[in-house]
Specification:
Layout (H helix, E strand, L loop, with lengths): L5 E5 L4 E7 L5 E8 L2 H7 L5 E5 L4 H10 L3 E5 L1 H4 L9 H12 L12 H32 L12 H9 L7 H33 L2 H6 L7 H10 L9 H7 L4 E3 L8 E4 L5 H20 L6 H9 L2 H22 L12
Parallel strand pairs: 1-4, 4-5
Antiparallel strand pairs: 1-2, 2-3, 6-7
C-alpha cells in the first residue's frame, strides 16, 4: 500500500468526506466519516498534509489537526472549483481539494487562532448590534411618521424621537405610545451592549502593539485597527504594500490581453470589512481637511480638483493600506509628511 502524504477533507456539519493520496497524487483511499469519527481516524494516520477549504469551521479543525501532528493547508473555495471533475459531489470535492493543494503555485489561507476568532466575533457582534439599533430606530421613525410626528434620521436624534413620544399634546394613541416605549427600551438595551463591546475592543486594542502602531495614523480608530489586526494575514506574507492593497480590492480590475493593458473599476475582490473602514477613514480625513480649511497633501488635492471626492477617497484608502503595510513590517509609527518648499 502506498504511503499517504496528503488528505483532502470536504467539511460539513455532520458527515466528512476524505480523500487520501500518495506523493504522486494517486488515490489511496476514499472515506465518509461522521463528525465524531473524523478526529479519531486522523489521529491514527501518520503525519501528513491535511488540505481543507477555508470556511467558518475549517480554522477549528486546522487547530485540531495540528494538535494531532499534521500539517494543515487551507485553500479558498474559489481556487478549488476549477479542479472539480464533471459532477459535483462530496467525493469529487475532496479529490479536487487534494489536486489544488498539490499545485506548487497555489495560494493558501493561514489558519486562525482561537484568540483571532474571538476578536472576529467581537467585531461582528458589534456590527450586528449597530445594525439592529439602526433598524429599530428607523422602524420607530416610520411608525411615528404615520401619526404626523417627524424627526430627522440618525441615532443623534434619538432624544427628539423620545420627546415626540412623551409629548402629551400629540394625538398618539395609547397603544402606539406603549409600542413606541418598547422601541425606545430596545434601543437603550442595544446601546448598552454596544458600549460594553466598545470597552472590550479598547481593552483588546491596548494589548496589541500592531494596533498601537496603526492608531498613530490619522483617520484610524479602534474599530479600524482591530479589523486589520483580526482579518488581515501577517503583513510579511505580502512582498510589497501594493500587494496588500490589491488583496483588499483597492486596485483596478485588469482585463489585459495582447500586450495592451486595460484597467477597469476598483476590483472589490478583497476583505470587505477592512476595505469599507479604510474608505470611511479616508473620507473622514478629506472631510476634516475641508471642514477646517486645511490644505491636503499635494497629490490628494490634485485628485480632489480633478476627480469626484469618492474617487479621491479610494485612492487615499489605497495609499493608507500601503502605508499600513510599511508601518507594520518595519515596526514604525506613522510620520507626518514633510512639506516641501519650492
Amino acid at each position: 500500500m502506498k504511503k499517504i502524504t496528503i488528505v483532502g477533507v470536504d467539511l460539513s456539519k455532520h458527515a466528512f468526506q476524505i480523500h487520501g493520496a500518495a506523493a504522486d497524487g494517486s488515490v489511496v483511499f476514499h472515506r465518509k466519516l461522521s463528525r465524531s469519527q473524523f478526529p479519531k481516524f486522523m489521529s491514527e494516520q501518520p503525519s501528513c498534509i491535511v488540505a481543507m477549504e477555508a470556511c467558518s469551521t475549517s480554522h477549528y479543525w486546522a487547530r485540531e489537526m495540528e494538535r494531532a501532528g499534521h500539517k494543515v493547508k487551507l485553500i479558498a473555495p474559489i481556487y478549488v472549483k476549477p479542479f472539480v471533475k464533471r459532477q459535483k459531489n462530496d467525493a469529487a470535492d475532496a479529490e479536487a481539494i487534494v489536486e489544488a493543494a498539490l499545485r506548487s503555485n497555489m495560494r493558501f489561507v493561514p489558519a486562525k487562532s482561537a484568540q483571532t476568532q474571538a476578536r472576529a466575533m467581537l467585531f461582528r457582534t458589534r456590527e450586528q448590534l449597530i445594525g439592529q439599533r439602526t433598524e429599530a430606530l428607523n422602524a420607530l421613525r416610520g411608525h411615528l411618521a404615520e401619526f404626523g410626528l417627524i424627526a430627522p434620521r440618525g441615532v443623534a436624534n434619538l432624544v427628539r424621537l423620545a420627546a415626540l413620544v412623551e409629548n402629551p399634546e400629540s394625538d398618539l394613541p395609547d397603544v402606539a405610545r406603549d409600542i413606541a416605549h418598547m422601541y425606545l427600551d430596545r434601543i437603550a438595551q442595544l446601546a448598552t451592549l454596544i458600549d460594553r463591546l466598545m470597552m472590550t475592543i479598547k481593552e483588546v486594542n491596548g494589548a496589541s502593539n500592531a494596533v498601537n502602531i496603526m492608531r498613530s495614523m490619522p483617520g484610524v480608530g479602534p474599530i479600524w485597527a482591530i479589523a486589520i489586526d483580526t482579518f488581515a494575514p501577517e503583513m510579511n506574507t505580502f512582498e510589497r504594500g501594493r500587494d496588500f492593497s490589491a488583496w483588499l480590492g483597492l486596485t483596478p480590475r485588469q482585463h489585459s490581453t495582447g500586450g495592451k493593458q486595460r484597467l477597469g473599476r476598483t476590483s472589490k475582490m478583497g476583505q470587505r470589512d477592512i476595505r469599507r473602514l479604510l474608505i470611511i477613514g479616508a473620507m473622514s480625513r478629506i472631510a476634516s481637511a475641508q471642514r477646517y480649511k486645511r490644505a491636503a497633501e499635494p497629490w490628494l488635492q490634485d485628485k480632489l480638483n480633478r476627480k469626484p471626492r469618492m474617487v479621491a477617497a479610494i485612492a487615499l484608502a489605497s495609499k493608507m493600506a500601503r502605508q499600513i503595510w510599511a508601518m507594520l513590517t518595519k515596526g514604525e509609527r506613522y510620520n507626518l509628511p514633510v512639506a516641501t518648499t519650492a
